[in-house]
């Protein structure tokens, strides 16, 4: 478990993090969500002892990172996808880390296989694509088989297959009982991965809640619907108090009702649905506005 308590960090006149407190429980994927520049990376660097807070503390299983006797066996972190020597092979990079951390060389081969880099392990890491670099960073984080893991924007620059792979890996690590903290500035991506959420805006806490509760609150106002019997469904939506805009052949956009309610109406009417999708762009926008406003409001109140 990670406990962040009253952390403040300033860089000159910039306050990157201000009086931030939250918990990251074991056995779940906790999403660390906030717009660019909201202090996520700074907080993660403080948790792993790469930066010192001006106030407050960050504890991993009750201890500051610098007091952990075997840091690599206790905390793994992907903070910088390019944090390797470009002239070194992936295997040599991991071997050096393993030696420094007192880990057996056999573990290097295990993590290379785990992240799917076995076949390219002897290539210079400088020739890797962004996605391969991310996999190497994840291999380094997993080297000590640690119970606590931090990933800073792990899906940045990955293709859809790579994104799915990271998502599955994070969920598996949490299912094994580990404490998993993963940052992102995209709510839609987090919604598919995290069970628990810590939301920050301008370095301050905006929300600490379950993903389900957060999505309920920010449920998008608009839902795209496609059906071969869209007129019949539109009448039912209007009858239930929703609003309907036409959106082309066999398509409408509904506002005023959640996707679940529209799905239930369709079922009750015996209408087939070809699409029922919350407007993700609207979701991101609503979320970004709210984080900005909440942070300003809290700043004003404090
Ligand atoms: N080493 C540093 N020196 C000066 N300012 C910094 C430093 N590190 C971070 N900052 C500033 O602190 C604020 C928070 O940055 P941080 O990188 O923690 O945010 P973030 O939420 O991780 O954003 P991103 O998603 O863009 O990485 C920003 O205004 C940033 O410019």
UniProtKB/TrEMBL annotation:
<dbReference type="GO" id="GO:0005524">
    <property type="term" value="F:ATP binding"/>
</dbReference>
<dbReference type="InterPro" id="IPR003593">
    <property type="entry name" value="AAA+_ATPase"/>
</dbReference>
<keyword id="KW-0813">Transport</keyword>
<dbReference type="InterPro" id="IPR027417">
    <property type="entry name" value="P-loop_NTPase"/>
</dbReference>
<keyword id="KW-0067">ATP-binding</keyword>
<dbReference type="InterPro" id="IPR003439">
    <property type="entry name" value="ABC_transporter-like_ATP-bd"/>
</dbReference>
<comment type="similarity">
    <text>Belongs to the ABC transporter superfamily.</text>
</comment>
<feature type="domain" description="ABC transporter">
    <location>
        <begin position="2"/>
        <end position="227"/>
    </location>
</feature>
<protein>
    <submittedName>
        <fullName>ABC transporter ATP-binding protein</fullName>
    </submittedName>
</protein>
<keyword id="KW-0547">Nucleotide-binding</keyword>
<dbReference type="Pfam" id="PF00005">
    <property type="entry name" value="ABC_tran"/>
</dbReference>
């Amino acid at each position: 478990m990670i406990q962040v308590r009253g952390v403040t960090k300033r860089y000159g006149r910039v306050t990157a993090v201000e009086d931030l407190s939250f918990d990251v429980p074991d056995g779940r994927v906790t999403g660390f969500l906030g717009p660019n520049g909201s202090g996520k990376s700074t907080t993660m660097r403080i948790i792993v002892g790469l930066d010192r807070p001006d106030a407050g503390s960050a504890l991993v299983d009750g201890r500051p990172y610098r007091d952990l006797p075997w840091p690599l066996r206790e905390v793994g972190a992907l903070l910088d996808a390019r944090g390797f020597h470009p002239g070194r092979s992936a295997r040599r990079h991991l071997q050096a880390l393993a030696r420094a951390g007192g880990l057996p060389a056999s573990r290097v081969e295990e993590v290379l296989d785990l992240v799917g880099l076995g076949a390219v392990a002897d290539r210079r890491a400088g020739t890797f694509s962004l996605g391969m670099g991310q996999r190497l960073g994840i291999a380094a984080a997993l080297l000590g088989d640690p119970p606590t893991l931090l990933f800073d924007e792990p899906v940045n620059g990955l293709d859809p297959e790579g994104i799915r792979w990271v998502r599955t890996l994070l969920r598996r690590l949490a299912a094994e009982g580990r404490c998993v903290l993963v940052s992102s500035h995209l709510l839609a991506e987090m919604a598919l991965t995290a069970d628990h959420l810590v939301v920050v805006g301008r370095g301050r806490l905006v929300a600490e809640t379950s993903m389900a509760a957060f999505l309920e609150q920010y449920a998008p106002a608009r839902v795209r619907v496609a059906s071969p019997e869209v007129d019949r469904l539109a009448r039912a939506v209007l009858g239930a108090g929703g609003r309907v805009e036409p959106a082309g052949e066999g398509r409408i956009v509904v506002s005023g009702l959640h996707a679940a309610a529209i799905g239930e109406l369709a079922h009750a009417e015996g209408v087939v649905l070809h699409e029922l999708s919350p407007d993700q762009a609207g979701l991101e926008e609503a979320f970004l506005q709210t984080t900005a406003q909440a942070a300003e409001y809290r700043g004003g109140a404090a």
